[in-house]
Amino acid sequence: MRHIIYTLFCITVLMGSCIKDRSTLNLYKVSNIGIDTAGLPVKYTVFQQGTLSVKPTVTVENTYRERLKYKWTMNAYQGYERVVGTQEHLNAVITELPSAISYKLIFTATDSTNNVKAFFTWDITVISPFGQGLIVADTRDEQNSDVNLIMAFNFTTSILKDSASTNIMRNAYSTANGQKINGIVKRLSYHKYNSYKDVTFMTDKSFIRIDPNSYMKKSLDNELFALPQDKIQPDDISTAHYLNQHQYIINNGKGYGRYGDSQKFGYSFLASDKKGYQANKILGLQNPGVVQSGGVLYDELNNRFLLLPRMTSMADPLRNFDATDLNNPLTKFDPNNMGNKTCRYLFEGYDARIIAIMKERDQDKYYAYQIKLTNPFTGAMGIAVNDLSQNPEISTAKYFTSSNMEQVLFYATEYKVYATITEIGVPSTTSLRYTVKPGEKITGMNIYYGAGVYDPGAGRMYLPSTSDPTNWAKRVTLNAAQRLVILSTYNESTKEGKIITIPIETLGVGGLVTNPDYIRTYDGFGRITAFGIQI
Predict the structure, then answer these.
(1) pLDDT at res. 6
(2) What is the pTM for the complete model shown?
(3) Beta carbons within 10 angstroms of residue 420's beta carbon
(4) Which of 27-31, 55-59, 239-243, 298-302 has the highest mean predicted lDDT (pLDDT)?
(5) Distance from C-alpha of 85 to C-alpha of 102, rounded to nearest angstrom
(6) Cα 47 from Cα 287, distance rounded (Å)
(7) Is residue 111 a part of any domain in this protein?
(8) InterPro entries given for it (predicted)?
(9) CA separation for the pair 80, 77 (Å, rounded)
(10) What is the domain range of residue 55?
């Protein structure tokens, strides 16, 4: 009986399979959504509060574009997600906190009829709007100053290519504080020690210190000192970034120092003897090493150089140079007796040498003196003198600087930049290296120093390939520290100031690059009166 039932069941099934399907059920092909990112980078760098724009091309098959829904999200660890867009193309302000770890930008296109999805992701690096860069102080009315910050390939580690984002935080000081700086900023200096950092600005009558994370004013004048000053008269400032970070200033002719995360300058440095001293130029060496001095100042009262205390001994008095050994053939001058000369510039050059640009007070004669501090001190630390008096246009030179990678002095007039070889034992030659455009005047010049121990790779530049210098595709990328001359210029007619960066292409002779493709310009400022690095 069971066999009969089974046989009948099989016959029924076979007969049913032969019946034509007359159902009304429609069968659809699955949607196919494509996200074309050809020509788009796989990762982006964007400033916090900056705008990120991404424009992929979405293609569809077996559905209609009108049925698609879009979602852009910024994602991070621990489940962080923020919707930043709902259109096919993204144009969003990025508010995420700066982070060393990249965010994930996820783009989702969804067919709303069947929930079919397509995805694409990008790595997004968010950097601070007040990150590494070049601080630029300018004025538009010759009475007040504002402060700007350039973050770009030349100055900012996280910007890896010249074609990547350039961000200029314009009028950062007045935006943060509701008013400009009263007076004209003549010097500025960034100081950082571990996590502590600040920026100090100098006008003719004030010291102003800000927090570089926000550009909010922190302290003013006497608030920078442990004891109130009889008079605030800023003259000079010098900050060492490379070792045991510290800072020196001159106020009302006297030297002061602070070390590490100390926010106040202590007592003024006592004189080395009963002669006293009066200074307006001071220099702290970036890396004094074992030398028992942090640098020098020039005593205008007694025409001599005096040794500064080391960074960890700021309470010590100034010190005289050892008696000069004039019988030593290596001795070229006596730092204790410079004659009737004034010091126009003090800066660090090749091999940690102190370069002093001096002028005869009663004659139109100019010199570059080189001091090399030793341990122990000796009477032969005045190692070289270069007479600049016959150099082209030296009497109209306003700005001087040098790189620690070559024995060359750069000096600038209002319109030209010259390079003079200062190598010991080599004939000094001077060459014209750069001329500004018609209508522009140079208002400042310095070497880009980089970020010291905090980021030796901060700042980059391009140079032509030595094998194929006319081929832009073969250009080389180099660390900009000590290889980049920075100029500020101003056009009186257009009232526009500019920052111009010029790489040193040929070391040893101060050979600036001549191909304009390798020179960068950052414009849109007022008259620039000071600039310096922010780490």
Answers:
(1) 43
(2) 0.81
(3) 23
(4) 298-302
(5) 19
(6) 33
(7) yes
(8) PKD-like
(9) 6
(10) 32-127
